[in-house]
Amino acid sequence: MNTPFESRLISTIKAILLSIAMTIALWTQTSPTAQIAAVALTLCGAILGRVLAAKELKLSIAIGVIWLGFLMAFIGPEWVRNTSALPFLDARNTLIFSDCVGFGLLGLTMAFGLRYLSCRWRAWSVFEAAVVVGSVIWLFRQHQNERIDRPRFLADWALMQGYDPTSIIMIIGAVVGGVAMGMVLYQQSVRKLALSVILLGALGYWYSWDQQDTPDFCEESCLDQTRLFKADCLASGEDESTCERQAEEKEDACIQKCEDQGGQGEDSQGQGKEPGEPGTPGAPGSGGGVTDQMMRNESNSSTNDPVAVAIFHQDYEPPNDILYFRQQVLSLYDGKRLSIDTVNEFDEDVIREFPYRSSIQAGENLSEDFHLPIHTSMYLMADHPQPVALTSSVEITPTKNPAPHKFLTAYDVVSWVSATPIHDMRLLGRASIPSDWTKEKADHYLAYADDPRYESLSNELVRDIDPRYADDTLVKALKIKTYLEKEGFYTRKERHAGVDDSTASFLFGNLKGYCVHFANAAAHLFRSQGIASRVAVGYAVQGRLRGNGSAVLIMADRAHAWPEIHIEGVGWVPFDIYPERSDEPPGDIVPQDLESLLGEIARGDLSGGRADEAIETPFEMPWTRIQTFLIVLCILLLGMAYFVKGWRKVRGLFGSHRTVLTYVALQDSLNGRGLGRWYGETRDQHALRIRDIVPSLTPLTEAHLRRQIGGRMEHDDDFFALCTDVRRELRTNLPLWKTILGMINPIGWWYTK
Amino acid sequence: MAPQKIRDALQRTREIFPLTASGLLLGGLLYLASTYLGDGEKDYIARNAVDAMALIAAASGMATLLASGALFFLITRMNSGTSGGQWETGERHSTGFSLPSLAWWPLVQMSLKWTLPSAEVDLVTSRKGVEEWVRFSQRGRHRHIARAITVRGLFGLFAITLRKSFRCDYRVVPTRSGLSVTPELMMADGDGLGHPEGEPVGDLVETRRYAPGDPIRLVLWKAYARSRRLLVRDHESAVSVLPSATAYFLCGPDDEPSATTARTILESGVLGDDLSFGADGTNRVSKNAAGALEAIIDSVHHREAGGRGLAGFMDSVDRSKLRRCLFFVPPVPGPWLDSLRAVIQNMPGSPVIFITVQGRLDGAKGAFSLFERRSEKQSHDVVGLFQELQGLGGTIQVVHHDEGRTLSVSELKAMST
């Protein structure tokens, strides 16, 4: 009979862990009775699996039993619910009993199968670990996609205490990972296991400490800015080495500024969170921004993480019930498509940098006749290359980040939002390009693909405009917009990928595409008619999909691209296309609990409105205190060890058992120098073994044994003389480093038997 | 052979490739969990569990690499540490070889095995480190010990095996067993049956088997009632003492118990002083127990061609001695069976054939045995072999290696089922 490779202790631990995993998995799934039955049967299955593997049960039989068990687990509950053979059970008890049968058999079979297979093939232990982790993932699955208000049993409690639920979940995850590794343990001695656990604990502590030292958001932004600066510099025709040097200077200055700011308390500037850090809401770039990213978000409807929270400081109802949060604009036609104007020559109305100390203002003023100033505060939860703000932002000011563990950055925004709908008569009769624009600027906003089809199509579209408005910017734009809305088909399935000009492919092809295609097509057609236009990228939040509070939660799936046109005397106006036909379902309603919760956190209540009184100071693990405590503890233990060592050394100088105590002190010295007794070795054998180094130990040991067992006893002075000889021999016959090590060694006495 | 070389190369590669099957599987699962749950669904449990597990696995892998590096450094500077000599199969011996125990080296563990020759190795912890104790499963004569030292991570995710061959002259002899069986050999001429351990003269029984023409009044009816053999009282005829025997050791798979039995019987002296012993692979006739033992040891390399030397041996032995012939045969049929069949047909007397088996005697007693995996040794059809040998006309004695006694047919059947 082959013995399974696991010891009984490890097998027992694994059986218990599997039972706990079953408990966790069923925590919210069924009644307590069924849970107890399932857990008990899981434990039985685990024990049975190990025992039968030890008894060399045939694999074919085991596989058959496992299949049968799973089959019964699915059929059994159904049979219990439908049978008339159990008349003594009422409806409620029938359901409970069917759960007992179903979950019990499931647990029994799963535990039996896993334990049997992992006892025969070690690799199966990995699946046992997966079951342990999987059960916890299942229990806490509601928190996925940044739902920090879920699961309620944890989130509500944590928030009321002022803890960050995400941090708690992260700690749980790490602990579960560590425990799950126990499932792949090999037969092991307790000493080595303890040693390994201590080492891994120290490693984990170092790792978590090290994670806190990663570059912060401010520094990351500096790097981005430097890259942009270098690109601008090179584009302006400067020498590469000059650009390199200037970029480095700029980066150094920026990082220095970040460090200064950090020293003053980076939270006050709202930059206390590292992008990409585990637990950071949203992976880098998840907020979209550039077209490709936007397309990715558009094509992936499952991306539904919160990316930002906007707090409105005054009431505002957008004219078409859509809030546009703009991040970037694509205005430069680079020969293939519209892209970001990296030279930063135009688009002065767009704020491109995050504010760090002082406010940043847009370079172009908008008309007060057509716009309203709206004050908002933005709290970003995902990394964005440029600040997201309600369009059109004219001033961005840094503000306090109330929850650095939750928000990457925070800033106040003043936006001049459109106060008039696009069909307002006051917008009629205005040119697109103001007279004060330079030719370069006009050309910049009118450049489009060198393809006559654009102009041909747009001419065809505006041909039947009332002659009174034939040259009117707004009417022409509306005509184009109407055409795209009527003829276009909104779908995420058509990507127009792999072609040189995806806009042409969309516009002159099947007219099927998503917002990026519509926005680019519209911009091209506008430009072909002499209307200055560009594509804005950001988020469009529909009023009907959100709650009624002043907080607006922006989800990643709200990423959007829309065209903007310029009207003289008005400024840039969002001119979004709303296709009439679509195969996309309506967007998900924003989780209002989460919106409200994040709104409260953004306002400074870290309990998210759960606690009776607002909690403004987040709970933080007292790592420094723990560290200090551990250091003090180590010092105390070390001190105690040295004290005991010293005491054992000197106690032979006085007292009634001087000879014995002196002999013991000598044994301590030998142990400290690595010359102690081996396990199972007698004192005689020990003395004989090291007689080359300490020849006097043999007569001393004999004298000691005679004193202990009985026999002729030397005079005490002779005994102490032998002790002195031993000490002398130790000093002379051992290398100095061993003597020094023996003196330093605080626990040599521990091994004296 | 090319496939064998490829297999060996793959084996060597696998041994130095640090990730085990468990490690690869865990790595794959961690990647999937990280990609689809950690990043895809923003699941912090999955993300941090993966981080923790990856960190532990990485620490374990690093410790394994460092420990194996240190051991490799040490082993390349080691000599055998094993003094040569003689060891016995089935017994546990200390070889004197020791290694650092790695007891204070966290996250790793060490194991040692012999790849050549095959032996079961135990590592016993002592203050010097770990000492090597071995138990040999087969006899042989060797000049090297090939050791494979495996440093394995605590969680079994990483393992590196280092091989080194040490020069060491030694031989492994079959051990003596506690056999309480004697061969049913006729140690005297005529029909009389002498006790094999008795004195050759004076212990004679004055009876012989009934032969056609014998007067019916001479039949020993009481003896017939006891033994179902027709014996007749014989007159005081002259009896020639035959204190000698011929024995041959046939090799084959699983012949180690048979070798143990052969050694025990040879050294017990029951085969007499005038011994003629042969074994497969040795073309000489051994005349004493010591020479016979050497022949048995050397025969280990001829298992594939068991029985090849039998005919030659029989030709070289005085034919008069073949009336008291003993064969030690393996419990597994093989080429030796044909050789034995051919020889027995031409033998003047009826030989005694010893089959030595080992395994559980209570194999078929529990109902659970129907569902058990059966080891290769137990799966041999010993009963079939027994019946086949019986058909050849010999006296078959099936001996159990561990029990040291003859098995009845029913016990043999129970063992085989």
List the helices and strands and how they pair.
The complex is a heterodimer of chains A (753) and B (417).
Chain A: H1 8-25, H2 32-54, H3 59-82, H4 91-120, H5 125-139, H6 152-161, H7 165-181, H8 190-211, H9 217-235, H10 240-263, H11 291-299, E1 306-312, E2 322-330, E3 332-333, E4 338-339, E5 360-361, E6 371-380, E7 389-390, E8 393-398, E9 409-418, H12 439-446, H13 452-462, H14 473-487, E10 489-490, H15 502-507, E11 512-513, H16 515-528, E12 533-542, E13 551-555, E14 559-567, E15 571-574, E16 581-582, H17 592-602, H18 623-650, H19 658-672, H20 683-689, H21 697-709, H22 716-733, H23 736-744
Parallel strand pairs in A: 10-11, 10-16
Antiparallel strand pairs in A: 1-6, 1-13, 2-7, 2-12, 3-4, 5-8, 6-9, 8-9, 12-14, 14-15
Chain B: H1 2-16, H2 21-39, H3 44-75, E1 85-88, E2 92-99, E3 108-116, E4 119-126, E5 129-136, E6 140-153, E7 159-173, E8 207-209, H4 221-227, E9 231-233, E10 244-249, H5 256-268, E11 274-279, H6 289-298, H7 310-316, E12 325-329, H8 335-345, E13 352-357, H9 382-391, E14 395-400, H10 409-416
What is the compact description of this entry?
The complex is a heterodimer of chains A (753) and B (417). With 753 residues, chain A is α+β, with helices and mostly antiparallel strands. Chain A is built from 23 helices and 16 strands.
Structure description:
Residues 261-302 of chain A have low confidence and may be disordered. With 753 residues, chain A is α+β, with helices and mostly antiparallel strands. Chain A has helices at residues 8-25, 32-54, 59-82, 91-120, 125-139, 152-161, 165-181, 190-211, 217-235, 240-263, 291-299, 439-446, 452-462, 473-487, 502-507, 515-528, 592-602, 623-650, 658-672, 683-689, 697-709, 716-733, 736-744; strands at 306-312, 322-330, 332-333, 338-339, 360-361, 371-380, 389-390, 393-398, 409-418, 489-490, 512-513, 533-542, 551-555, 559-567, 571-574, 581-582. In chain A, a hairpin with a 4-residue loop joins strand 3 and strand 4. Chain A contains 23 helices and 16 strands. In chain A, strands 5-8-9-6-1-13 form a 6-stranded antiparallel sheet, with helices on one face. Chain A has a 5-stranded antiparallel sheet with strand order 7-2-12-14-15. Chain B has 417 residues and is an alpha/beta fold. Chain B has 10 helices and 14 strands. In chain B, strands 11-10-12-13-14 form a 5-stranded parallel sheet, with helices on both faces. A 4-stranded mixed sheet of chain B has the order 1-7-6-3. Chain B has a 3-stranded antiparallel sheet with strand order 2-5-4, with no helix packed on it. The radius of gyration of chain B is 29 Å and the shape is elongated. At the A-B interface, helix 5, helix 7 and helix 8 of A face helix 2 and helix 3 of B.
